[in-house]
C-alpha cells in the first residue's frame, strides 16, 4: 500500500480526528469477528443470543456464551492496529476513538480517549439496580452471576433492539460531524446506528478513510478505501 503525498498531507493537517473500529481490528489478535467465515455467529443465530429476550428466557445459556468468549479473549494481546490507533491519540490534540468492540483490547493497547458504543465484556450490570461493575473473573464461579442484592447480573453490552446509551451515541454523532478526518476500520457497517457514523462524517465535510479486508456498504461513499488488514494498514496511517 502506498500512502501518497496528498493523503499524508490530509492526515498531518487534520485538527479533529475520529476513528471508528469494529471486530475486524481485533481479528489479528485472535478474536473471532461476528459475521466472518469463522465468525462468532456462524453456528448460532445472532438474534437467538444477543437480545434481551434471549437473556430473559435463559440467562444461564447466554452467560455460558459470554463466559466462553471472556475466557477466549482474556489471554489475547492487542495487535499493531490497536497500537497504531493508540499512537494517533498522542499525535492529535482533538481525538476520539469510537469502538463497537467490547473486548477491551483498545484500552490494553493504551487508548484512553475511547467511547465504547456497545459496552464492555469485562463489565456486568445488575438487572434491578443497574449498577455497572468491572468483573474479570474467568471462568465465572456461578452462572448466571448474582449481584450482592440477589438479582441476576447481565453483561454490560448493548444487544439487538436495545438503545445505545444516549450520552454515548450523542457524543459519537457530534464527534463524527465535527471532525475533519474520520478513519473507519474493520467493520461490516451493517449494524446501526454505528454504521451511519462514517456517512455523517462525510456529509459534514470530513475526509473519510476506510480500512477493511472486504468491500462494505460504505466503501463507495468514503474518500479512500484500503483493502487489507488493519494491523498492516493502520500503522502506515501514522505519518
Ligand atoms: C477486517 C479484518 C482485518 C475482518 N482487518 N478488517 C435501522 C435499520 C435497520 C435496523 C436497525 C436500524 N436501527 C437499528 C436497527 C436494529 C439493529 C440493527 O442495526 N440491525 C441490523 C443488523 C439490521 N440495531 C440495534 O438494535 C441497535 N440498537 C438501536 O439502534 O436501538 C434503537 C432501535 C432499536 C430497534 C429498531 C430501531 C431502533 C443496537 C445494536 C447493538 C449491536 N450489538 C452487537 C452484539 C453485541 C453482542 C456481543 O458482542 O456480545 O455488537 S451486534 C454485533 O455487531 C456487535 C458488533 O459491535 C456489531 C458490529 O459488528 P462489526 O464490528 O462490524 O463486526 P462484523 O463481524 O460484522 O464485521 C467485521 C468486519 O471486519 C468485516 O467487514 C470484515 O471484512 C472485517 N475484517 N478481519 C480489517 N484483519
Give every kind of bound small molecule, once each: ligand BJW
CATH homologous superfamily caption of the largest domain: TPP-binding domain
Could you tell me the CATH topology label of the largest domain: Rossmann fold
- CATH architecture of the largest domain, please? 3-Layer(aba) Sandwich
Radius of gyration: 18 Å
Q: List low-confidence stretches.
A: none
Distance between the termini: 14 Å
Give a count of the beta strands, DSSP E runs of length 2 or more: 9
| CATH class descriptor of the largest domain | Alpha Beta
Structure description:
With 239 residues, the chain is of the alpha/beta class. Helix 8 (166-178) runs parallel beside helix 9. 39% of the residues are buried. A hairpin with a 5-residue loop joins strand 4 (119-126) and strand 5 (132-134). The protein is elongated. A 6-stranded parallel β-sheet has the order 3-2-1-7-8-9, sandwiched between helices. It has 2 domains: 5-31 and 78-118 and 164-237, TPP-binding domain (Rossmann fold, 3-Layer(aba) Sandwich); 36-75 and 126-157, 2-Layer Sandwich (SIR2/SIRT2 'Small Domain'). The longest helix has 15 residues, at 59-73. The chain is built from 10 helices and 9 strands. Bound molecules: ligand BJW. Residues 22-24, 27-28, 33-36, 39, 50, 100, 102, 118, 157-163, 186-188, 190-193, 211-214, 216, 229-230 line the site of ligand BJW.
